[in-house]
Amino acid sequence: MSNEGSPKTARRITRLSAVNNENVVESSKTCNFKPLTINDLVYGNQTMSLDELISSFPGRRAQIIELISLLGPLNSAMFPIFVYGGSSTGKTSIILNIFRHLRRPFVYSSCITCYSPRLLFESILNQLMLHRKSESNGYSSAKRCEKPSDFVNSLREALSTVIGNLNGNVEKAGSKKAAGQQPKGKVVYLIFDNLDLVRGWDKSSNILPLLFNLHDVLRMTEVGLIFISNSSPDMYYADTGFIEPFPVYFPDYSEDDLRQILMKNQVNTNLYSSFLDVVLRPFCRITRRADELSTALLPLFKKYCEPLGDLGAIPNEEMKRKLFGHLQKHIAPSLNDTFRVSSELTSGGLLSKDNNKRKGTTKKLGANESSDEIEFYISTSAKYLLISAFLASRNPATLDASLFDSTGGLDNRKRKRKSSGKSLEQKETAEQELLMKGPGTFPLERLVAIFQCLTSVAEYSPDEEGQENSGGIGESGNSGLMSGVLLQLSSLCNSNFITKGGSCPLEGSTRYRSNIPEDMALKVARSLKFPLSKYLYRR
Amino acid sequence: MGLKNPAEEAVALLRSRLCNSNFIFTLFSDSPDSNYSKLKYIISSSVTEACNNSVLLLGPRGCGKIAVLELVLEDLLKEFPNMISVIKLNGLLHSDDNCALKEISKQLCLEHELLFSKLASSDDNSQFMIAMLRECGLAHKTVIFVLDEFDLFAQGKQRLLYSLLDAMQSVTSQAVVIGVSCRLDADQLLEKRVRSRFSHRKLLFLPLLREDMQRILEHCLLLPTDSGLPHEYVADFNSKLLNILADKKFKEIIDTLFNTDSTFNHLLRFLFSAVCNMNMKPGFLSLENFKAALSSIQRQPKLECLKDCSILELYILVCMKRLEVREQEVCNFNSIMEEYKSIHDSFQTSDYYARTVCRRAFEHLLQRELISFLDNRGHGQSIEFRPVKLLISWHELHQGLKSYRSCPAILYKLVEREG
After folding, report:
1. Boundaries of each ORC5 lid domain copy (chain A) (predicted)?
2. Residue A195 in 3-state DSSP?
């Protein structure tokens, strides 16, 4: 990903990994890390000048200057700062790099990795107490701390020792000049990233007011608090409210900023800028997120370069026109599958609240749209199971008996077709209902029954794949088939083709739901040569 | 350190003043009818007369309840050395009774140089507290309990409040309980047995008055002449500042600030921002600094968010608004897509994208919190079927589209029509 904007690449380098990288060479020889010192509370090795900082984040000049002025000169007190803005606008990386520029000590903890209050508290304390989890201490934290009251007490202690050490440093630095590595000033900053996730925690009604009031609870002027969040301050409600931190807004990049970001790290800037002239505007109508754009534009740029022999060439007007003519027909279709590629790459970061449960669905639904082949391999019996689940979700349970006769004969099945005006109306409301409610749920028994019907109709048994006429579909095959089904079902559930819902309050059994769209079910059926449409109840 | 820029030093001074909320309230300590004097009278009388007392400090957030209390306690600790010990609890941290008792005995131990045992049970701690109260009463020492976020202590069984107030009923003890809360009905939250033991003294803290504004501004921003700063610089700075304060435009800025939120804290944050914006080269505050501060403190997150949306996302919002106006009972992604298609069919817009693309835009909107799911149930279901609702009003949407730089005319028309 050569054309990726620096906000994303820089984000990957958390301070923790930066610290670890320094020690990689060392750790290959001996397995011991250097004990952490107070100098490890600053970010990165080399300093960064303000100009470098501003030029490495195009379109963020105003925010950088505002943040630096809010942090103020050395050792000055500050109000808590609340940095907010959409994702991939460079909040985290800019803050971290500002601290790299200022060389002030800070503690960074992200609420993504610290997903519970205890982990958050312990991560902050570990960093402040210069404690590193290792084999020798059994990967335990410096202090076990679950309750907010314990946290505040320990935090106060830890902060005062750190501030004491920093004070000592300041005095020493006055005497000798070797202060390149040392943190500057005696104010420690606590950075809380991804604060919006805290709202989804169990005890969020306790933790959020605590974090926002931490400044007043601690009452230490040598501590600065910085919150980073995706959602704006008005989305944090609390019963009795809290003192609002000082807001700093990171707007989404404008088209010009995006151009600058995408132009970074390009080999042939002239060529790429003429490419962006053509492409950027239509794509900006869909999304203005730098990360999504860079992945979407990558294949398109390859297309753009296809007619070119020499990639280093500087395009003139005529060539530009020719290249544009070549690309024009690709733009519109690629707009429409912009997210087919990126859905697999970025859906992980989306909708983080209950992301885990939905991630697989997003992937799957985005993944198979247009091609005729199914893009993954599953066994034949799993395909049948998938189809049966699909049917169980779509067809009303009352019609099962008429659709799947016990003898399994297709000829016995008679479908009534009504075409009066009233039934048309009904059909419309039923369609509406399907759109609004989605696929229905079904118990395991029904799924297995349908599965058995289908497999017997297709004269198929999972034990005897390929030997169609051996006639062994008797009672003996059934037990083996059943155990296979349960295994297959659990793996289909894991891959999110079928979701396991909560248990039904009346029956008490687990209910399932099939998530696949109709065209995909048809595709699977086609690969089996199975007449799915015959069994699908059309209202 | 003599080479330091005086402007930088001045900024550091001003910032430390503004961030320490006690500073602003020292202004009110001399007037006889201020909360400061009242509170000081209540506490000092119970110290001198050796009696028990309880009082509630009520008022909205950011009006200086804790700041005034701290100033009072600071003064009293100087006035009556060795006669007062202060125990501070916070409802956010110690709303759990056992935890609160533990913290009380910990602080008592610290205060009286005793050894605190972490293993002590909550019963031990409670007995220890009562014994300590008696001992302190016999030694004519007043224990002051400060309960910040008092309303949170009133959750649950209120065992702590009961045992504390009950212990104070005896003649020997000598304690003051000060509850601090931003809920004006905090005393109504108490159980009957607790309420009857509570003396219903309340001090109400109000947001700042317009008349005091000039005094406060001068108090906060004027540089002192007796600090280490060069005299000419201080004189220059102060005269320029007084000019600004007298300016008509500045008064307008203060009025707009005052109209939205008139708490002390809001003013402090405004001044903090102005001081941060100060240009170091001339080193003086200017009217522009205050203007910039006002705009950075008064944000409209929803409108900002709308400005960030892509055009496709705006389409989806408009579709949702149309569905909402039509009073369809629930709306989900599928119904939005139908509306989107119908708009496209009737107006032949140039922005018609595939379903996956729209779905991604829909997810962006969810992430921006311009729309949200109606319920938290149905995790198993895919996003398309879950009902959603719009979190912005028609007015905001209209305003947002109006200020959007290149909003398609058709969208604007559609919204206008719905209004």
Report:
1. 272-324
2. helix
- Closest among B4, B58, B52, B379 to B189, alpha carbons compared: B58
What values do phi and psi take at A485, rounded to 5?
-60, -45
Name, in order, each residue with C-beta under 8 angstroms of B261's C-beta and a sequence gap of 6 or more: none
* C-alpha to C-alpha distance for A526 and A523, rounded to whole angstroms: 5
Query: Is B92's CB within 8 Å of A351's CB?
Result: no
What's the per-residue H, E or C state across B283-316?
CCCCHHHHHHHHHHHCCCHHHHHHHHCCHHHHHH
How much is the CA Rg of chain B, to the nearest whole Å? 29
Q: Mark yes or no for CB contact B307/A284 under 8 Å.
A: no
Query: What is the C-alpha to C-alpha distance for residues A3 and A262, in angstroms, rounded to an integer?
Result: 6
| Residues A252/A86, Cβ–Cβ less than 8 Å | yes
Q: Give the relative orientation of helices B394-403 and B311-325 as an angle to the nearest 10 degrees.
A: 150
Q: Which two tokens stand for residue A474?
A: 């008797």
Coil vs helix vs strand at A333? helix
B142-148 sheet: strands from edge to edge? B84-90, B142-148, B175-181, B53-58, B201-204
Of residues A423, A400, A403, A424, the one with CA closest to residue A412: A403
- Cα-flanking dihedrals φ and ψ of residue A533, to 5°? -65, -20
Long-range contacts of B37-44 (CB under 8 A, 24+ apart): B38/B203, B39/B68, B39/B69, B39/B72, B39/B203, B40/B72, B40/B75, B40/B76, B42/B176, B42/B201, B43/B72, B43/B73, B43/B76, B43/B144, B43/B176, B43/B178, B44/B76, B44/B79, B44/B80
What residues are paired with A498 via a beta bridge? A514
Residue pLDDT, tens place only, B31-48: 778 889 999 999 999 888
Fold (topology level) of B303-418: Arc Repressor Mutant, subunit A (1.10.10)
What are the sequence ranges of the domains in chain B? 31-204, 209-297, 303-418
In single-letter form, the type of residue at position B12 comes to A
Superfamily of domain B31-204: P-loop containing nucleotide triphosphate hydrolases (3.40.50.300)
Q: Do residues A188 and A179 touch, judged by C-beta distance below 8 A?
A: no
How confident is the model over A185-239, as pLDDT tens digits?
888 999 999 999 998 888 777 888 899 989 888 888 889 999 999 988 888 877 6
Asked if the C-beta of B195 comes within 8 angstroms of chain A's C-beta atoms, the answer is no
Cα separations in angstroms, A437 against A14, A401, A511, B333, B385: 43, 24, 16, 11, 6
Q: Long-range contacts of range A434-438, CB-CB < 8 Å, 24 or more positions apart?
A: A435/B332, A435/B334, A435/B335, A435/B338, A435/B385, A436/B330, A436/B332, A436/B334, A436/B335, A436/B385, A436/B387, A437/B385, A438/A513, A438/B381, A438/B382, A438/B384, A438/B385
Determine the Cα–Cα distance for residues A513 and A510; give it in Å rounded to an integer: 10
Q: Which of residues 4-33 of B touch A (CB under 8 A)?
A: 8, 11-12, 15-16, 18-20
Within the 267-306 window of chain B, which residues sit less than 8 Å (CB to CB) from chain A?
Answer: 268-269, 272-273, 276-277, 296-297, 299, 301-302, 304-305
Whether B29 contacts B36, CB under 8 Å: yes
Question: Residue with structure tokens 């914006």?
Answer: B277
What ipTM, to 2 d.p.? 0.91
Task: Count CA atoms closer than 13 A to B82's CA, side-chain side.
Answer: 1
| Type of residue at B182 | C
**Predicted confidence (pLDDT) per residue in A478-500, tens digit:** 555 566 788 888 888 888 788 88
Number of continuous H segments (helices) and E segments (strands) in chain A: 22, 8
Report how far residue B196's alpha carbon sits from residue B208's, in angstroms, rounded to the nearest whole number. 33
